[in-house]
Amino acid sequence: MGDCIFCKIIKGDIPSKKIYEDEFVYAFYDINPEAPTHFLVIPKEHIESVNMLNEKNINVISHIFKTIKKLAKELGISEKGYRIVNNCGEDGGQTVNHMHFHVLGGRNLKWPPG
């Protein structure tokens, strides 16, 4: 999608602090972190939200979660714990229409989140 900020980040048109990249996903630090460790993992394929998953693209979800597990360990947040957040749709708080998963750790995260 031409106007999608995450697609522009993946293409390198907008700078990001990349953590990881492979043929399916791109991971980078959030520009407004809510925890000492706060990064996003996004599919390289433009998928608007979880609601747009189908038989052709559903396998990206397992790859995203494998990537999150790997990065959480590498970044030292896996032992004490971390939170994975996906906002879906307007009422769910999704502000960028490209499916993405926030990973937050490095402090005690309260519930409910707000």
UniProtKB/TrEMBL annotation:
- All copies of the HIT domain together span 5-114
> Do you know which PROSITE patterns this protein is assigned to?
HIT_1, HIT_2
Q: Which Gene3D superfamilies match?
A: HIT-like (3.30.428.10)
- Residue numbers of motif Histidine triad motif? 98-102
CDD domains cross-referenced by the UniProt entry: PKCI_related
One Pfam family name is HIT
The name of this protein is Histidine triad nucleotide-binding protein
**Organism encoding this protein:** Clostridium weizhouense
